[in-house]
Amino acid sequence: MHLRNAAILFCLFCCVSLNAQILPFHSYTTRDGLPSNTITALYQDSRGFLWIGTNNGLSIYDGASFRNYTAANGLSNNWVTSIAESRTTPGRMWLGTIAGGINRWERGTWTTINIDTSYMADGYVGSVLEDYQGNLWCSSRLGVFVLNDSGLSRLNIAPQREDAVEIALISDSLIWVAMSRHLYVFTRAPNYDREIHLPLGDKGTITTLSQGTDGTVWVGLSDSSLIQIRDTIISVSTKLRSGIPSQIISLPAGQAGTKGLLWVRTYDHIVTLSETEPDIQKPLLYRNEKGIPPAVPLPILIDREDNLWIGGWVNGLHKLADRSFVHVPLGDSDAGAINVHTSADSNGHLWVGSLGGVWEFYRGETEDWNRTFHPLLQGTLNNPFLVDPLHRLWVVSNDWEQLHCYRIAQDAQASSRLFHLQTLDRRVYDPEGSFLGFYIDRRGHVWIATGSGIVVVDFLTKRILSRYPTTPSRPFGHVTAMYHDPEDRMWVGTFNKGLYVIRAQDGHLVRRLTKADGLPGDEIRSIFGDGNGQMWIGTRHSGLALMVKNDFRTLSMRDGLASNAIWAMHEDAQGRLWLQTDVGLVSIDRQNLRPLPLKPELVGEAVNTFGIYKNEFLWCKALSALTIMDFSKESHSMAPPPVHIQSFEAGGELFRHETEIELAHSQNTLTFEYVGISLRNEKGVRYRYRMLGIDTTWSQPNNQRRVTFATVDPGSYTFQVEAISGDGIPSIQPASASFIIIPPFWQRWWFVSLAVAAVSSILWTLYRYRIKKIVEMERLRVRIAGDLHDDVGTNLSSIQVASQIMERQASLSEQDRTQLREIGAIATSTQEMMRDIVWMLNPKNDTLDDFLLKMKEVAARLLQGMRYTFVAPDGRLLDKVSIEFKRNIFLIFKEVLNNIVRHAAATEAVIRVEQEDGIFSLEIKDNGKGFELEKFTAGNGLSNMRRRAAQIGGSIEITSKPGEGTVVTLSVKNHANA
Q: How far apart are the C-alpha atoms of 118 and 749, rounded to whole Å?
């Protein structure tokens, strides 16, 4: 049986295929929207857009989508050879084609520049470049020509047949032209200033030309040489150790954290070297694509965010955003394993479980990751294992019953050797339990978690040191995480019973922490103590908790965390806490407990295990590969993303937003589409916007690239949008669109002015009409009052005199005299009433002062023979009062005085009138016999007084008791029924 196992292990060791490490390139092909997978030219314009030339048209990439242009959209030819932007008119683009001459793009329109065939055979243009004076330099098979407002001019150099011509602008005035075996310098066309003689040999040629830093020029030669020219003198000459240079890109010192780097593409791979020390060359691990012809130089580009773009011949465009990452495939034998464990030793070697043993990964002298397979009889593909600080490898056996320990004999830059030291059998320490996990503390003691608790075992003697819990009736349950802190306390996380803190020395339970104590959940999955002595607890469903003294600060998906499942934690020197979650590795800022931008290379795939080695690198194991992040090579793009408004739609109609727009009032449903260009992490770009004129506050950031405003009121507005890159860098300035929604004609100033004038005219006419009617009414009142006084008064006086004369006749009986006296009394009473009516009708008596004089007159007439007091406000009261006001109050007043005279048997009365804040108050008080209100019937006139008071919006209150007199109080506004 042992021989059979050994044979299997030998076969595995010999037959495993070792795949080379790869960089995390992201590829774009026709499936993503490119018009072709053959990339012929690359350029990033001043607005941040990436222009991609192919053999089947042009594509403009904004990080969200590809906009493609072909001959059907205005190109003269689909094969694009070169791309350049105007230096005098940013936004104007020049394209060279293989058989269609020159194309110009400006404001969304393509124009073909017609060139005489004597300058350009078969319409071929190899390269285009515009200088700072607006001259367009172009190369063709017939030479180099310059196009400007004055027309065409040819340079006084003639290429040999099939010469490759390259043009480079080195400064504001110097143009360099490389032509097979010749290098020329121009200050203006057509005559060159000088020719630079290069050490080409008999068959050597120039393969590429590029601008360096500080006005230098780099030239690639066919013998793999790189030459630097400063002030037309060769200053540096070095040779590439692999390949012939086909393209050179120079990054100035300080750009994207570089120090004068050269990127050189050969026909096989890419090499980076320092401009100051070009002999120090580092090949970039990029495997050439299958099918690329060896003699075709394909384009490369470093964009403003330090992304490396490589054009392919058959499989599209490739981007390397972060060169700190490398992926190492683990081989077909590990495919499908979801719980493969990984650990790191003190020398930075990584140990990865595999079928039949473990892989050891280590860096050699070239910093490439090498690996060696160590066969073990105890399979480790899905079994827990770890490497402790004492250079020992611990592995759980296949039956999950035994724990094997190996000593690692290490070599820093070579593979290690394993020597078996010890075996611990779980059944010896807990026969009834099951193996759940293990932990090695700082003393080297082994903590074995079983179903009934934890057993602590001395490694050398295999003796049990202690058991937890000490009381079997209170088990921990399923132990999921353990951590030994600097204060010699063991933190034990459980499946669903919270967290236990144990004193490791004597097993004393310090405390138990659960959700009731502030933990976000009781399902503990990870525990970590950081360099500041703070304890972090990860849960299965409730996120992360930081223990601060006796309280907890929590972080979950509600706060922006990518997942609430925290399986493991480690910290780095930059103050980041890295979390293993269901969506991959994420990080947070330990100081402010805030999630940091995601790294695309670490998310999207489940991670089994991860760790950090001495703040040098981070490693994690995913399903199919080991990913390593070198902190020393980590780059953070500080380039603010430019943001552009792509379309502005109002009422279903598209508008240009470059200038202020006037919109009709019916075009008040507005839609804006925008894009922020950050090509490092396109999916991480977020946006926030605001509409000045409605609100000045920014919206919450989101990844939506379209917003609609419905039913916007007329007015002046400015829409602003800002982009935030995946690294959290906002745009320098927002993109904006200003517009005015013109109000409908009925809301415009001229219409409002006319309407106000018209309404004012109508109101003035109505006012004049009302005044006229009032005057007519006053005249009528005066005429009626005069008629009543003259006619009715005269007749009543005649009746009164006639009745008195007839009463003196001796022949009349006593009964007749009595009737005549009654007729005279009625006439006298009617005459007095008529006088009162005439007084009320007369407009000269409409002031409150006139009304009080009338009340005093009536009181003097009705209260003859009785002592009374009339109290009125000082000064004249000139408030106007209506006829209804005078009539109702006057009748109430007379009714009260008549009741005092006829029924109260009073000897004294007090009349008090007050006027305050437009309220007229009348109080009449007597010392008569009084009465009981509840027994008083409605037929005595009280209901009439209440009705009259209600008619003018007033209130009346009567207070009386037998033997205590009566008080009547009336209150009403002066203008009532005016």
A: 65
Q: Is the dihedral of CA 940, 946, 952, 956 positive or negative?
A: positive
Q: How confident is the model at residue 752 (pLDDT cuts 50, 70, 90)?
A: confident
**Nearest to 236, CA basis, from 280, 270, 204:** 280
Residue 703's CB is within 10 A of a number of other CB atoms, namely 10
Instruction: Determine the longest span between alpha carbons in the chain, in angstroms.
Output: 175
Instruction: Return the half-sphere exposure (C-beta side, CA atoms, 13 A cut-off) of residue 508.
Output: 5
Rounded CA gap, 197 and 529, in Å? 65
What is the CA 764 to chain-centroid distance, rounded? 57
Alpha carbons 266 and 225: distance in angstroms, whole number: 11
Q: Cα dist. 590→543, 573, 596 in Å?
A: 15, 11, 10
Q: What are phi and psi of 387, to 5 degrees?
A: -115, 125
* Residue that terminates a domain, selected from 724, 744, 764: 744
pTM of the model: 0.72
How much is the pLDDT for 12? 33
Q: Is the domain of 875 the same as that of 832? A: no
Long-range Cβ contacts of 142-147 (<8 Å, 24+ apart): 142/118, 143/119, 144/177, 144/179, 145/115, 145/119, 145/120, 146/189, 146/190, 147/102, 147/113, 147/115
Can you list the alpha helix ranges (DSSP code H) found in 813-931?
814-841, 848-862, 883-899
- Grade residue 57 by pLDDT with cuts at 50, 70 and 90: very high
The answer to whether residue 47 sits within a structural domain is: no
pLDDT at residue number 805: 67
Domain with residue 893: its CATH number is 3.30.565.10
Q: Which of 918, 927, 940, 915 is nearest to 967 (CA)?
A: 927
Q: Which residues have C-beta within 8 Å of that of residue 64, sequence separation ≥ 6?
A: 675, 682, 705
Provide the pLDDT confidence category of residue 975 given band limits of 50, 70 and 90.
low
List, edge to edge, every strand of the sheet that includes 568-571.
568-571, 576-581, 584-589, 594-595
Tell me the residue range of the domain where 715 lies.
Answer: 643-744
Q: Which helix (H) or strand (E) holds 801?
A: helix 793-807
- Rounded to whole angstroms, how far apart are CA atoms 751 and 759? 12
Task: Note whether residue 751 is domain-resident.
Answer: no
Q: Which residue has the higher pLDDT, 790 or 170?
A: 170
pLDDT of residue 471: 61
* Euclidean distance between the first and the last CA atom of the chain, given in angstroms as a whole number: 121
Q: Give φ, ψ of 939 to 5 degrees.
A: -75, 0
Q: Is the dihedral of CA 322, 325, 329, 330 positive or negative?
A: negative
The three-state DSSP-derived secondary structure of 553-592 is EEECHHHCCCCCCCCEEEECCCCEEEEEECCEEEEEECCC
Burial of 463 (0-12, 13-18, 19+ CB in 10 A): exposed
**CA 486 → CA 430, 438, 455, 537, 572, distances in Å?**
29, 19, 21, 16, 19
- Chain mean position to CA 866: 89
Domain count, the chain: 4
Distance of CA 569 to the CA centre of its chain: 28
Contact present, 159 and 206 (Cβ < 8 Å): no
